[in-house]
Amino acid sequence: MKKTIKDKITFTGVGLHSGKTVNISIKPSEPNSGIIFKRIDLKNNNLVLPNFSNVSNTSLNTTISNEFGVKVSTIEHLMGALFGLGVDNALIEIDNEEVPILDGSAKEFIEKIYAVGLTVSNAPIKIIKINKKIEFKDGDRVISISPSRVSLEIEFELKYNNPVIGNQKNKVNVFEDDLNEIFNSRTFCLYEDIEAIKKNGLARGGSLENAIVVKENNILNNDGLRNSKEFVNHKILDCIGDLFTCGYRMIANVKCSQGGHYLTNKLLRKVFENKDNFSIVEIQERNLPHTVINRSLLRSIA
Fold this sequence. Notes:
By secondary structure, this protein is α+β, with helices and mostly antiparallel strands. The protein folds into two domains: 123 residues, 2-Layer Sandwich (Ribosomal Protein S5, domain 2), CATH 3.30.230.20; 174 residues, lpxc deacetylase, domain 2 (lpxc deacetylase, domain 1), CATH 3.30.1700.10. It is built from seven helices and 20 strands.
């Protein structure tokens, strides 16, 4: 069954890259309406759909734009939270161009959505089932998606020439594992990259309050890391949010080495360019554990 939130929830913060103060409201929405962003600071042409085909920029964030050039940036953490709690339909009203970064993770989004609760409709959930292995490479960076019987598994590998970050690897089953560490993991950067990032007009709202900053052998944040794999776990959070731009839950195995927003978007474009690559199935069930999927139901379509 499709879900929306029971009541409006609001957030106020700064955009990580714009540095602008932004207010956002997430409101209940009708079944089959999907996720919709509405730029309420604009009077006309202000709806932007979080679809992979509308992704217009993947440089240190995921930005979506409509046909009129109206954009919403840094959607990935919110999209990951919506996916994680099984929210299929929501109207997201935003009064600026960028979703607030909050603490750099999906923690606050998750907590407020969970607190307000969800309304379950009678509309069946549509799920994408991957039929064949698809791969996208960019130099030594690679991402692939392949068939899975009953789950969405994401395996991510991170390689940094830094002793603190180093090489990290993690694998999660999105429909069965406890994802608290994923949703609580913050965005991060190297101290030596900050000047170049800001010269490119990005990270104007960045601070130790919303990002992990690593300088040589040290983490500059006083509270250190929230979990031992916070760097790669944040990349998995980004991946979950970016995968949700396909508009559906997904049954697949995803593997990524040194990837990010760009690779995930390119992979989705490659998957959906050929209808033989995927199938769309419907499931009806009121009590879907954890996120959206009941394994016993999925076995009937595997």
